[in-house]
Amino acid sequence: MLTNKQIKLINSLHSKKGRSENELFLVEGEKGIQEVIDSDYEIEFLVINVDFQEVFSGISIPTYFVSKEDITKFSTLTINQYGLAVVKCKITPSFTQLDDVILLLDGVRDPGNLGTIIRICDWYGIKQIVLSNDCTEFYNPKVISATMGSFKRVDCNYTDLTAFIQANPEHTVLGADLAGENLHQYTFPTKVFIIMGSESHGISPEVSAMIQQRITIPRFGAAESLNVAISTGIILDHVRRN
To answer: In angstroms, rounded to a whole number, what is the distance separating the alpha carbons of residues 196 and 104?
Structure first.
């Protein structure tokens, strides 16, 4: 049976402060829980709907079975009747060894967008994302949920983007820009940083000043802009085609 202390801990992990102080985060829903169990993340304990007790009969992880009403009460998700996992945060990777293609995110604050971008990167085999310090938090429950389990396969590092770019001059710096070269006609270099900015503010002036080549997704209709996650997917698709 869950103790009041454990319930208080779960509730504290709904906030960034609670996650930071406890160095723990929540993974919620069937897909996320299955993925985190099959990973090198350390799970403190599971809270599972009693209806799925047989599924977890052979699990060595401490598991507490509660009603679906309690799952809904403990969860940050609007719909979650399966369960949640309390998981230890990992130390942020340093990226001392860089991949050829790395995504850089500047000021992306919407957790749903970040989670979807991580999932897209996983689909296209992009393993490293570098984020500006003002991007939304990786362990935000909405980010973790939107990744659909991809959070365990893509490393994210928060740092000063200008300093990171300056320290790695062997990579060509590309930026998504409405005034850039047509993506359909562009040949990507072997080693490349691809910078995506926020939908509301774009790429910040200091990071924009470091861009060596600007690219754009050609528009054929009347929409003013594309969602940053959708844009990332289109660009990464062209990277892999090259």
So the answer is: 6
What is the four-CA torsion angle of 204, 205, 206, 211, rounded to 10 degrees?
A: 90
> Please, are residues 159 and 193 in contact by the beta-carbon 8 Å criterion?
no
Q: Which residues contact 86 (CB under 8 A, 6 or more apart)?
A: 9, 10, 13, 24, 25, 26, 43, 44, 45, 46, 47
Between the alpha carbon of residue 72 and those of residues 1, 28, 77, 237, the distances in Å are 17, 11, 8, 37
* Residue pLDDT, tens place only, 77-109: 988 999 999 999 998 877 889 999 999 999 999
Best CA proximity match to 22, nearest among 73, 71, 74, 89? 89
Tokens 């967008």 appear where? Answer: 113
CA distance 144 to 135: 14
pTM of this structure: 0.94
